[in-house]
Amino acid sequence: xxxxTPPLAGAATVAAAGAPAPVPAARSAPLPTRTxxxxxxxxxxxxxxxxxxxxxxxxxxxxxxxxxxxxRPALQRAGYRVVTMDVxxxxxxxxxxxxxxxxxxxxxxxxxxxxxxxxxxVVLGNSFAAGSAxxxxxxxxxxxxxxVLLGPIVRDGPPDPLARAVVRLGFAGPWRVWFWMTxxxxxxxxxxxxxHAQARRALAANLRQPGRMRALATMVGLSKADTxxxxxxxxxxxxxxxxxxxxxxxxxxGEARWLAGALSAELxxxxxxxxxxxxxxxxxxxxxxxxxxxxxxx
Length: 298
Prior knowledge:
The protein is of the alpha/beta class. The chain has one domain (2-296): Alpha/Beta hydrolase fold, catalytic domain (Rossmann fold). 38% of the residues lie in helices and 17% in strands. The chain contains eleven helices and ten strands. The strands form two sheets. The chain has an eight-stranded mixed sheet, with helices on both faces. Strands 1-2 form a two-stranded antiparallel ribbon.
């Protein structure tokens, strides 16, 4: 791993190199599932407990809270209380919701922090949930110390009629779970955790439950214009982590630099990684996240 001169004032860029190989899954023991009732349904989460600073980790759309299984042990060893939650529509949270927006999920994060009585918290958000982390900080700034945005999608991409048609077809029939899982599998271009196949089976099984794919189709179709509108106003300390081969962007590094600049955030570019840098390169992303947390949530 090499460090280069920051391209933005107050930001740091990290280029991570490594040969494709399975990432050892240094997981902690499974934790019991807890639930929180909010307007419209229940949110599922687990909690390592302990007196340390609170970290709330939020997965992206169409995924489970287990996506933080490689970061959680390192955070816990460093003294943090780690809570991972399933977002609306997925995992052990309710499947049916009237509102599946990043803003609504951000509200769930705030309610969870308040219910735990352990704030303020650092909020980790992957993909669309990066926007939820920013919404949580906007809705309750006293409850959010800082945010870590992993593979963040916080604005709409340029119009792509062909991509829209493919997505429409992919969600249109009984092949919809296969379609999503094929796409999900492609988000790990360099290397995968050694328990990747197990995680894939668990996610596919969850998405086959009634209402899950309907929730996913709704989320995929939502505009992120409201989230983009709050980026320039955000005051929360932020750390942006982006894989340079994230296929959700035509120019992942450019997208990351735009967001880091707009937030006056620190920036880590993970060379060769895709949409889940914290799973592909946990051995490199984990220490960088811990370094950021030590300075914003000591």
